[in-house]
Design a protein that fits this description.
By secondary structure, the chain is α/β, with parallel strands linked by helices. It contains ten helices and eight strands. It has an eight-stranded mixed sheet with strand order 3-2-1-4-5-6-7-8, with helices on both faces.
């Protein structure tokens, strides 16, 4: 059967997505940075799904060269039906990628958009791309220093900016995808109970007890991406946003956000180097 690629497939939500795709009979490619962590998860997916066509491939989203190398490898193998850009990062402190970009914007935006661009022309007609965004896009901003911020590091604003950029990038790619007979949409999983949302503070255990029962499970968070990847909704729409497994209107504030064209042009300048 055709391939389904899941980035961050060894994470809480990623392994749920990979398992469900395996159950549907897809040859699943687990695109992961930590092969050691991914290996027992692959074995678990095989055991639970009865599908032995589960492969792990190295993908380091901190490096655009790694993204290019990964894309070249899977393109050679052909028959790509689904790409789910699930992997993401929420940094505790200011960091830069191997290419010199602020870590949130590099991992959450530049890397998945480059992967989309490289795989789009090589996917099966009728293929689907799902980019996992966030409810925090509502508070995101696109500033002209987004790749190299001059302001002091702010954890959630920097993350929100990167996810807003990913949503806008998804919309920008939808015209090209449509021409190729492929759909690309965004999925908002909501606030999911994963290690990503910890604050790294002394009060984390207390917050866990109080708040985590009201936060979505990884299974609940994965449901929207799977809905877009596997149901008719995902093939009928292009450049759309889904939340709670339903299409959600994209606010005008986002569609008309300042610096949207600048982001498109600057992203092209950066990614054309790869």
């Amino acid at each position: 059967m055709a391939k389904a690629i899941v980035t961050g497939a060894s994470g809480d939500m990623g392994k749920v997505i990979a398992l469900e795709l395996a159950k549907k009979g897809y040859d699943v490619v687990m695109a992961c940075r930590n092969i050691g962590k991914a290996t027992p998860i692959r074995d678990e997916i095989i055991a639970k799904s009865g599908n032995s066509n589960i492969d792990i491939k190295m993908l380091d989203l901190c490096s655009l060269t790694s993204v290019k190398n990964f894309a070249q490898e899977v393109i050679k193998e052909g028959d790509i039906a689904i790409l789910i850009n699930n992997a993401g990062i929420l940094c505790h402190e200011y960091q830069i990628t191997k290419d010199g970009f602020e870590m949130n914007i590099g991992v959450n935006y530049l890397a998945p958009i480059l992967l989309c661009q490289l795989l789009l022309p090589n996917m099966n007609k009728g293929g689907r791309i799902v980019n996992v965004v966030s409810c925090t896009t509502q508070i995101g901003k696109i500033n002209e220093d987004i790749f190299h911020p001059q302001s002091s590091f702010q954890r959630f604003p920097f993350y929100s900016n990167s996810k807003l950029a990913l949503l806008l990038g998804t919309i920008e790619l939808s015209s090209k995808a449509k021409e190729l007979g492929i759909t690309i949409n965004a999925a908002d999983p909501g606030i999911v109970s994963t290690g990503m949302i910890t604050m790294g503070k002394w009060f984390d255990p207390i917050a866990d007890v109080i708040f985590r029962p009201f936060i979505r499970t990884p299974e609940e968070g994965a449901a929207t991406a799977l809905h877009v990847a596997l149901t008719d909704d995902g093939i009928m729409k292009n450049g759309a946003l889904f939340a709670s497994s339903k299409e959600k209107s994209i606010p005008e504030r986002i569609l008309r956000c300042k610096n949207r064209e600048w982001l498109k042009d600057e992203t092209k300048k950066i990614l054309d180097r790869y």
